[in-house]
Amino acid sequence: MQSIDIEALNQQIYADSAFVETLREETAKVIVGQDTMIERLMLGLLCRGHVLLEGLPGLAKTLAIKTLSKAVDARFSRIQFTPDLLPADIIGTMIYNPSTNQFTVRKGPVFANFILADEINRAPAKVQSALLEAMQERQVTIGNDTFTLEEPFLVLATQNPIEQEGTYPLPEAQVDRFMLKVKITYPNKEEEREIIRRNLSGDVFAEVHPVVKPADILKARQSVRRIYMDEKIERYILDIVFATRTPGEYGLRNLEPLINYGGSPRASINLALASKAHAFLQRRGYVIPEDVRNVCHDVMRHRLGLTYEAEAENITQEDIINKVLDTIEVP
Questions:
Q1: Same domain, 42 and 144
Q2: How far is CA 122 from the centre of its chain?
Q3: Which stretch of DSSP H or E encloses residue 46?
Q4: Which residue among 33, 78, 190, 307 is least enclosed by CB atoms within 10 Å?
């Protein structure tokens, strides 16, 4: 690619990404700190990928998702997952009308742009399977009818990592369909001081205005795919993913007893897409290795299976990813 092409692409991406700062400023009216969480939600939005947020209660996971949906001027549905939830409670069902002697479709809350699946691991497998078709195929089947879901369609799920009583592990097939798994941490002292002040003064209820249209998001998705990725970056992504499958070939033989299974092809696809979207958020028309390293943990952590030996030694997915990133040569 000629340098003049790169320069032209850079200018085009800079213009197309103008709404990013406006969106950040609007969400900052309500959300204090948690810049990484907001950025990851925007990555999912730009990449047509679902996001799983994992963190302790009270870290603004639900609030961040609701705030983002208001700022994007999109339809929002919240589904509180519980053990007695049924598939029909999510996708809808057929309702019998006695006056016409016919069944009509009653659509469920999944028919929206932003779906907040709150505490998603509290519902049993049959409910999770009802969500799979919507997440992967962007469609819902009720009776004999299949309905296409309106874009942008995004499932943003939360789960609590410490309270496991009354929860169900998510099926591996469903976990793999989440583009990102983001771990939410505590705010720092200054951020928490601002949170206290806003709550005491009532500013926490600041009104969020829609600053981006769904059409703008769809246009931005096309721009993200146009971002230039060099062959060296492609090889770097493949080396990272393949090092989790066959670590011995990359000088990581000590990881072989710790990894049960490595990243799937979705890991490679989503790592490339997320890297492009991260470059877009930086208002840059090309991908650099730092883009890949920045999103790698969130793309990979839920796609690595650990052995009992790793769990016994308290080795986490983050430890594996760090070792891989430290070993693979950066282009």
A1: yes
A2: 19
A3: helix 35-47
A4: 190
Mean pLDDT is lowest, of 81-90, 119-128, 155-164, 227-236, for 155-164
Share above pLDDT 70 across residues of the chain, in percent, rounded to a whole number: 95
Is residue 262 within 8 Å of residue 304, measured between CB atoms? yes
* Nearest alpha carbon to residue 288 among 221, 225, 223, 230: 230
How is residue 208 written in tokens? 């969020």
Domain-located, residue 5 = no
C-alpha to C-alpha distance for 124 and 104, rounded to whole angstroms: 27
Q: How far is CA 85 from the centre of its chain?
A: 23
Length of the chain: 331
Q: Taking phi first (over 0 means left), then psi (-120 to 50 degrees means alpha), and beta for anything else, what does residue 175 get?
A: alpha
Distance CA 25, CA 14 (A): 18
Evaluate if residue 18 carries a pLDDT over 70. yes
For residues 105 and 144, state if they share a domain.
yes
Of the candidates 189, 184, 178, the one whose C-alpha atom is nearest the C-alpha of residue 62 is 184
Q: Has residue 20 been placed in a domain?
A: no
**CA atoms of 268 and 270, how far apart (whole Å):** 6
Please check whether residues 250 and 154 belong to one and the same domain: no
Q: Is the pLDDT reported for residue 277 higher than 90?
A: yes
pLDDT for the residue numbered 2:
43
Residues paired with 305 in a beta bridge: 261
Residues 70, 192 share a domain: yes
pLDDT for 1 equals 42
Taking Cα atoms as reference points, which of 119, 55, 62 lies closest to residue 85? 119
* The two three-digit tokens of residue 202, written as one number: 């009532």
Assess contact for 36 and 299: CB atoms under 8 A: no
- For residue 293, the one-letter residue type is R
